[in-house]
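R.M. (postdoc): so does anyone remember the format we settled on? I'll just put the structure tokens first.
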């Protein structure tokens, strides 16, 4: 039985008109994303934090996020794009982060231009950005830390999240692209895709642009492709589905005193064994 070998993110980006990534919080959710046909997995900082019962507020360490991303990448052949928050500290931390993620076989990471410690973008809290020149220097530092040309660095701007407007988002993204970022992630909490579309209309660099349509779910993958997006990330829908499913299941069992009424809707154990590749493991002589 062979271990899973993953494609690099760069190779997937080159072969797709638009890359569709699903957020995952552990290896099992990553496997399910791959089986559903997604091109990449987003190792979500929100998801990994939530699966520890903690807020997405730089409480877990780089090692925790790396262990989660690595566990995902070991089980899927599509690339994992690791959400590395604001880079876990200063430029030295970012350098160490690039070394460690690259050595662990992760081929794409994203860092955002918020101050460390950060808070999740959808929380009504301080969303303070670093000065753009400061983050551009961080991008240069990160790019000079990678060992292989294959490694892909996404610079994420939180200008729209921080209420700084499209002109500032564009100014920042241009600086980050010029500093060597391989991709630009423009995050928005608008209710429609119009804000991201305006950004894309004004975008005049070859650097691919990525969007996360969480608050604008009506913006379909077709809309994203038409607008010139290179990748869409469905960052937290899987996590939210897990919460709904687990809550419903636990509540019903607790109330009914048995699982009888639920059984028809539950994945059979045979499906769990298949997700674990149990048959292949059984081929290995003990
Ligand atoms: C995450 O999934 O952790 C993200 C995306 O960074 S969001 O939560 O939408 O900010
Ligand atoms: Mg995140």
């Amino acid at each position: 039985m062979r271990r899973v070998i993953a494609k690099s993110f760069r190779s997937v980006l080159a072969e797709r008109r638009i890359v569709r990534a699903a957020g995952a919080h552990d290896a099992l959710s990553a496997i399910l994303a791959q089986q559903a046909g997604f091109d990449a997995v987003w190792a979500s900082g929100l998801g990994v934090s939530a699966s520890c019962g903690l807020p997405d507020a730089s409480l877990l360490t780089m090692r925790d996020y790396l262990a989660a991303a690595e566990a995902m990448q070991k089980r899927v052949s599509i690339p994992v794009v690791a959400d590395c928050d604001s880079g876990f500290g200063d430029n030295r931390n970012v350098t160490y982060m690039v070394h460690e993620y690259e050595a662990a076989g992760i081929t794409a990471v994203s860092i955002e231009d918020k101050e460390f410690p950060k808070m999740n973008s959808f929380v009504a809290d301080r969303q303070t950005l670093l000065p753009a020149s400061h983050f551009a220097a961080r991008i240069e530092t990160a790019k000079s830390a990678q060992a292989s040309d294959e490694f892909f660095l996404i610079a994420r701007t939180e200008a729209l999240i921080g209420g700084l407007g499209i002109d500032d988002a564009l100014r920042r993204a241009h600086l980050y692209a010029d500093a060597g970022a391989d991709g630009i992630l423009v995050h928005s909490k608008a209710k429609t895709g119009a804000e991201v579309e305006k950004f894309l209309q004004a975008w005049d660099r070859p650097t691919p642009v990525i969007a996360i349509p969480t608050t604008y779910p009506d913006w379909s993958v077709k809309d994203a492709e038409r607008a010139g997006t290179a990748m869409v990330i469905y960052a937290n829908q899987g996590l939210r589905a897990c919460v709904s499913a687990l809550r419903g299941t636990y509540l019903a069992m607790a109330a009914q005193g048995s699982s009888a009424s639920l059984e028809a809707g539950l994945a059979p154990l045979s499906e769990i064994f298949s997700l674990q590749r149990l048959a292949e493991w059984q081929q290995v002589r003990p």
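R.M.: ...and that's the designed sequence above, right after the tokens. Also worth knowing: The radius of gyration is 19 Å. The longest strand covers residues 19-24.
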